[in-house]
Amino acid sequence: MKIILLKDVAKLGRKYEVKDVSDGHALNFLVPRGLVEVATPSALKRVEMLKKTEEEKKKIQEDLLLKNLEDLKGVTIEMSEKANDKGHLFAGIHKEELAPAIKKQTRLEILPEHIEMDKPIKEVGEHEVTVKIQEKSVKFKVIVTAS
Hints:
Elements: E1 2-5, E2 18-20, H1 23-30, E3 36-38, H2 41-72, E4 76-81, E5 88-93, H3 95-106, E6 115-116, E7 121-123, E8 125-133, E9 136-146
Parallel strand pairs: 4-9
Antiparallel strand pairs: 1-2, 1-3, 5-7, 6-8, 8-9
């Protein structure tokens, strides 16, 4: 049975992809949970339009971010997290936690996928993080203090 994914589904695919799955899996698991829709010609057209508008919206957002990326240069983001006596954080700071902190402190909405970090921040102190949008990248500092 051909289906259209309405959300990212682990081990199956990403949003708006058309996949072929067994009838039982689609009708008993995926459709009742609202994860997929049966791929009819009208549904395919509608999803194609949704996909285009979402891509256009993302492109506009990236262009706006590119213009505002220079504002992030030299900025210091401060975060306070729980840590032990040695300065090790109980929970590392990932891209997903850093993006809202950037938005709150600079009013720039950076998506987690634009933040480049090799590994999560796991220690108190000063860290350098890069934001890369298309071919342009900017570095800024993140200061983590123990709370």
